[in-house]
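Is this the right way to post C-alpha coordinates for a design question? Let me know if I should format differently. Anyway, here goes:
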Protein backbone atom coordinates (compact mmCIF):
# COMPACT_ATOMS: atom_id res chain seq x y z
CA UNK A 1 0.00 0.00 0.00
CA UNK A 2 1.24 3.48 -0.81
CA UNK A 3 2.23 5.41 2.31
CA UNK A 4 0.14 8.58 2.79
CA UNK A 5 1.73 11.88 1.71
CA UNK A 6 5.07 10.31 0.75
CA UNK A 7 5.65 9.18 4.31
CA UNK A 8 8.67 6.92 4.03
CA UNK A 9 10.68 7.47 7.17
CA UNK A 10 14.44 7.19 7.16
CA UNK A 11 15.52 4.53 9.64
CA UNK A 12 19.12 3.89 8.55
CA UNK A 13 21.15 5.58 11.31
CA UNK A 14 24.38 5.70 9.27
CA UNK A 15 22.57 7.34 6.37
CA UNK A 16 20.94 9.91 8.68
CA UNK A 17 24.34 10.82 10.12
CA UNK A 18 25.94 11.08 6.67
CA UNK A 19 23.18 13.39 5.43
CA UNK A 20 23.34 15.61 8.52
CA UNK A 21 27.10 15.94 8.21
CA UNK A 22 27.16 16.48 4.42
CA UNK A 23 27.11 20.25 4.98
CA UNK A 24 28.65 22.26 7.81
CA UNK A 25 25.39 23.19 9.56
CA UNK A 26 26.83 24.29 12.90
CA UNK A 27 25.38 27.69 13.85
CA UNK A 28 23.60 27.89 10.47
CA UNK A 29 19.89 28.49 9.84
CA UNK A 30 18.75 25.20 8.37
CA UNK A 31 15.40 24.71 6.64
CA UNK A 32 14.12 21.15 6.75
CA UNK A 33 11.09 20.28 4.64
CA UNK A 34 9.05 17.25 5.67
CA UNK A 35 10.70 16.30 8.99
CA UNK A 36 8.35 13.35 9.52
CA UNK A 37 9.08 11.95 12.97
CA UNK A 38 12.28 13.98 13.12
CA UNK A 39 15.25 11.61 12.67
CA UNK A 40 17.11 14.12 10.50
CA UNK A 41 15.93 17.02 12.67
CA UNK A 42 17.51 15.30 15.69
CA UNK A 43 20.82 14.81 13.85
CA UNK A 44 20.85 18.40 12.54
CA UNK A 45 20.24 19.76 16.05
CA UNK A 46 23.04 17.52 17.35
CA UNK A 47 25.32 19.12 14.76
CA UNK A 48 24.51 22.59 16.15
CA UNK A 49 22.04 23.74 13.47
CA UNK A 50 19.26 26.26 14.16
CA UNK A 51 16.43 24.41 12.45
CA UNK A 52 13.09 25.48 11.02
CA UNK A 53 11.05 22.48 9.91
CA UNK A 54 7.92 22.64 7.72
CA UNK A 55 5.57 19.66 8.06
CA UNK A 56 2.17 19.21 6.45
CA UNK A 57 0.80 16.43 8.64
CA UNK A 58 -0.91 17.69 11.80
CA UNK A 59 -0.41 14.37 13.63
CA UNK A 60 3.33 14.59 12.99
CA UNK A 61 3.43 18.22 14.12
CA UNK A 62 1.88 17.16 17.41
CA UNK A 63 4.42 14.34 17.73
CA UNK A 64 7.33 16.68 16.92
CA UNK A 65 6.08 19.30 19.41
CA UNK A 66 6.26 16.66 22.14
CA UNK A 67 9.52 15.10 21.02
CA UNK A 68 11.38 18.40 20.70
CA UNK A 69 9.70 20.56 23.36
CA UNK A 70 13.08 21.45 24.94
CA UNK A 71 14.67 22.51 21.66
CA UNK A 72 11.55 24.50 20.73
CA UNK A 73 11.68 26.30 24.09
CA UNK A 74 15.42 26.92 23.68
CA UNK A 75 14.79 28.45 20.22
CA UNK A 76 16.98 25.99 18.30
CA UNK A 77 13.94 24.45 16.57
CA UNK A 78 10.91 26.17 15.06
CA UNK A 79 8.11 24.03 13.66
CA UNK A 80 5.85 25.32 10.91
CA UNK A 81 2.65 23.43 10.29
CA UNK A 82 2.23 24.13 6.59
CA UNK A 83 2.42 23.08 2.99
CA UNK A 84 5.96 23.61 1.63
CA UNK A 85 4.52 24.00 -1.87
CA UNK A 86 2.66 27.14 -0.82
CA UNK A 87 3.77 28.55 2.52
CA UNK A 88 6.32 31.30 2.99
CA UNK A 89 9.86 30.10 3.76
CA UNK A 90 11.80 31.75 6.58
CA UNK A 91 15.27 33.12 5.77
CA UNK A 92 17.74 30.19 5.81
CA UNK A 93 21.36 29.41 4.91
CA UNK A 94 21.16 25.70 4.17
CA UNK A 95 18.35 23.26 3.44
CA UNK A 96 18.72 19.63 4.46
CA UNK A 97 15.59 17.64 3.65
CA UNK A 98 14.25 14.26 2.74
CA UNK A 99 11.66 15.72 0.39
CA UNK A 100 8.14 14.44 -0.25
CA UNK A 101 8.78 12.97 -3.71
CA UNK A 102 5.43 13.97 -5.19
CA UNK A 103 6.26 17.66 -4.60
CA UNK A 104 10.02 17.52 -5.36
CA UNK A 105 9.85 19.70 -8.43
CA UNK A 106 7.74 22.52 -6.98
CA UNK A 107 9.71 22.58 -3.73
CA UNK A 108 13.08 22.59 -5.56
CA UNK A 109 12.02 25.57 -7.70
CA UNK A 110 10.76 27.40 -4.60
CA UNK A 111 14.01 26.74 -2.71
CA UNK A 112 16.09 28.00 -5.65
CA UNK A 113 13.91 31.13 -5.83
CA UNK A 114 14.29 31.73 -2.10
CA UNK A 115 18.10 31.48 -2.38
CA UNK A 116 20.52 29.58 -0.12
CA UNK A 117 24.20 28.75 0.33
CA UNK A 118 23.90 25.00 -0.03
CA UNK A 119 21.23 22.30 -0.04
CA UNK A 120 21.45 18.60 0.74
CA UNK A 121 18.21 17.15 -0.62
CA UNK A 122 16.91 13.65 -1.05
CA UNK A 123 15.02 12.76 -4.21
CA UNK A 124 13.75 9.79 -6.10
CA UNK A 125 16.78 8.57 -8.11
CA UNK A 126 15.14 9.19 -11.51
CA UNK A 127 14.33 12.76 -10.49
CA UNK A 128 17.99 13.31 -9.51
CA UNK A 129 19.09 11.87 -12.85
CA UNK A 130 16.83 14.31 -14.69
CA UNK A 131 18.29 17.21 -12.69
CA UNK A 132 21.80 16.47 -13.92
CA UNK A 133 21.00 15.27 -17.46
CA UNK A 134 23.38 17.24 -19.71
CA UNK A 135 21.87 19.63 -22.27
CA UNK A 136 21.98 18.08 -25.71
CA UNK A 137 21.01 14.59 -24.45
CA UNK A 138 17.59 12.84 -24.56
CA UNK A 139 17.10 12.84 -20.74
CA UNK A 140 17.22 16.64 -20.51
CA UNK A 141 14.09 18.61 -19.59
CA UNK A 142 12.86 21.83 -18.06
CA UNK A 143 14.07 20.74 -14.62
CA UNK A 144 17.61 20.00 -15.89
CA UNK A 145 17.90 23.33 -17.70
CA UNK A 146 16.51 25.43 -14.83
CA UNK A 147 18.57 23.69 -12.13
CA UNK A 148 21.79 23.74 -14.18
CA UNK A 149 21.30 27.42 -15.10
CA UNK A 150 21.13 28.49 -11.48
CA UNK A 151 23.04 25.82 -9.55
CA UNK A 152 25.59 23.06 -9.52
CA UNK A 153 23.93 19.77 -8.55
CA UNK A 154 25.68 16.51 -7.80
CA UNK A 155 24.57 13.16 -6.31
CA UNK A 156 26.48 12.38 -3.12
CA UNK A 157 24.70 9.25 -1.83
CA UNK A 158 22.45 6.50 -3.12
CA UNK A 159 19.98 4.91 -0.71
CA UNK A 160 18.12 1.68 -1.27
CA UNK A 161 14.54 1.09 -0.17
CA UNK A 162 15.86 -0.79 2.90
CA UNK A 163 16.93 2.49 4.51
CA UNK A 164 13.26 3.49 4.93
CA UNK A 165 10.16 2.34 6.70
CA UNK A 166 7.90 1.53 4.94
CA UNK A 167 10.31 0.85 2.04
CA UNK A 168 9.47 2.95 -1.02
CA UNK A 169 9.20 1.33 -4.45
CA UNK A 170 12.07 3.45 -5.73
CA UNK A 171 15.74 4.15 -5.02
CA UNK A 172 16.78 7.49 -3.62
CA UNK A 173 19.59 9.92 -4.30
CA UNK A 174 20.90 12.58 -1.96
CA UNK A 175 22.04 15.60 -3.98
CA UNK A 176 24.27 18.51 -3.05
CA UNK A 177 23.01 21.71 -4.70
CA UNK A 178 25.06 24.89 -4.71
CA UNK A 179 23.55 27.97 -6.37
CA UNK A 180 25.67 29.89 -8.86
CA UNK A 181 25.42 32.84 -11.22
CA UNK A 182 24.07 31.66 -14.60
CA UNK A 183 27.04 30.81 -16.85
CA UNK A 184 25.51 32.90 -19.70
CA UNK A 185 23.95 36.34 -19.18
CA UNK A 186 20.16 36.30 -18.90
CA UNK A 187 18.39 39.64 -19.43
CA UNK A 188 15.15 38.70 -17.69
CA UNK A 189 14.86 35.67 -15.45
CA UNK A 190 11.07 35.42 -15.60
CA UNK A 191 11.06 35.50 -19.39
CA UNK A 192 13.88 32.93 -19.48
CA UNK A 193 11.84 30.58 -17.24
CA UNK A 194 8.80 31.06 -19.45
CA UNK A 195 10.72 30.29 -22.67
CA UNK A 196 12.34 27.17 -21.18
CA UNK A 197 8.95 25.96 -19.93
CA UNK A 198 7.22 26.57 -23.27
CA UNK A 199 9.97 24.94 -25.35
CA UNK A 200 9.86 21.77 -23.25
CA UNK A 201 6.06 21.68 -23.43
CA UNK A 202 6.70 20.76 -27.09
CA UNK A 203 9.88 18.77 -26.74
CA UNK A 204 9.26 16.67 -29.85
CA UNK A 205 8.93 19.79 -32.04
CA UNK A 206 11.68 21.99 -33.44
CA UNK A 207 12.46 25.21 -31.56
CA UNK A 208 10.82 27.22 -34.38
CA UNK A 209 7.63 25.14 -34.26
CA UNK A 210 7.48 25.19 -30.45
CA UNK A 211 7.88 28.99 -30.48
CA UNK A 212 5.03 29.34 -32.96
CA UNK A 213 2.71 27.08 -30.97
CA UNK A 214 3.58 29.08 -27.83
CA UNK A 215 3.33 32.52 -29.45
CA UNK A 216 0.11 33.26 -27.53
CA UNK A 217 2.06 32.93 -24.28
CA UNK A 218 5.47 34.23 -25.40
CA UNK A 219 4.12 37.05 -27.62
CA UNK A 220 4.02 37.14 -31.45
CA UNK A 221 6.47 40.06 -31.72
CA UNK A 222 8.91 38.37 -29.39
CA UNK A 223 8.74 35.14 -31.40
CA UNK A 224 9.40 37.15 -34.59
CA UNK A 225 12.41 38.82 -32.92
CA UNK A 226 13.80 35.43 -31.89
CA UNK A 227 13.42 34.11 -35.45
CA UNK A 228 15.23 37.17 -36.79
CA UNK A 229 18.22 36.88 -34.43
CA UNK A 230 18.69 33.17 -33.76
CA UNK A 231 20.42 31.18 -36.53
CA UNK A 232 18.52 28.56 -38.49
CA UNK A 233 20.76 25.73 -37.24
CA UNK A 234 19.38 26.34 -33.71
CA UNK A 235 15.77 26.96 -34.75
CA UNK A 236 15.62 23.64 -36.57
CA UNK A 237 16.79 21.65 -33.54
CA UNK A 238 14.64 20.22 -30.75
CA UNK A 239 14.84 21.61 -27.17
CA UNK A 240 16.76 18.50 -26.03
CA UNK A 241 19.43 19.15 -28.67
CA UNK A 242 20.51 22.66 -27.69
CA UNK A 243 22.90 23.99 -25.03
CA UNK A 244 22.39 26.20 -21.96
CA UNK A 245 23.92 29.14 -23.87
CA UNK A 246 21.32 28.69 -26.64
CA UNK A 247 18.39 28.90 -24.20
CA UNK A 248 19.87 32.16 -22.87
CA UNK A 249 20.36 33.54 -26.41
CA UNK A 250 16.78 32.64 -27.42
CA UNK A 251 15.26 34.26 -24.32
CA UNK A 252 17.47 37.36 -24.61
CA UNK A 253 16.59 37.76 -28.30
CA UNK A 254 12.87 37.72 -27.49
CA UNK A 255 13.15 39.91 -24.43
CA UNK A 256 14.77 42.76 -26.37
CA UNK A 257 11.51 43.14 -28.24
CA UNK A 258 8.82 44.93 -26.21
CA UNK A 259 5.28 43.87 -27.21
C1 LIG B 1 9.73 11.16 2.65
S1 LIG B 1 9.02 11.70 4.19
C2 LIG B 1 10.48 12.13 5.10
C3 LIG B 1 10.31 12.12 6.58
C4 LIG B 1 11.59 12.33 7.40
N1 LIG B 1 12.34 13.48 6.97
C5 LIG B 1 12.46 11.10 7.38
O1 LIG B 1 13.47 11.13 6.67
O2 LIG B 1 12.14 10.12 8.04
C6 LIG B 1 8.34 13.26 3.69
C7 LIG B 1 7.67 14.07 4.77
O3 LIG B 1 7.14 15.25 4.15
C8 LIG B 1 5.82 15.51 4.63
N2 LIG B 1 5.14 16.23 3.56
C9 LIG B 1 4.50 15.73 2.47
N3 LIG B 1 4.07 16.72 1.68
C10 LIG B 1 4.47 17.88 2.27
C11 LIG B 1 4.30 19.27 1.93
N4 LIG B 1 3.67 19.64 0.82
N5 LIG B 1 4.82 20.21 2.79
C12 LIG B 1 5.47 19.84 3.91
N6 LIG B 1 5.64 18.54 4.28
C13 LIG B 1 5.14 17.59 3.47
C14 LIG B 1 5.26 14.14 4.96
O4 LIG B 1 4.21 14.23 5.91
C15 LIG B 1 6.51 13.42 5.48
O5 LIG B 1 6.65 13.63 6.87
Amino acid sequence: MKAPRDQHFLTDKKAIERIASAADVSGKRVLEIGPGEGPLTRALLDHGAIVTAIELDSGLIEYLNNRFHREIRAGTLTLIHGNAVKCEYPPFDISVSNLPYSASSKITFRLLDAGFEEAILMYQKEFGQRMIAPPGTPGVGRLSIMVQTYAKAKPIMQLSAKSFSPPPAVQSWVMRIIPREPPHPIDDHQFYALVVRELFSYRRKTIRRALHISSGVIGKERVAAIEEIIPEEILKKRPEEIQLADFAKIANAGFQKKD
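Format looks fine. Someone answered above. Worth noting: The pocket of S-adenosylmethionine is lined by residues 5-10, 33-36, 39-40, 54-57, 60, 83-85, 98, 100, 103 (CB under 6 Å). The chain has 13 helices and nine strands.
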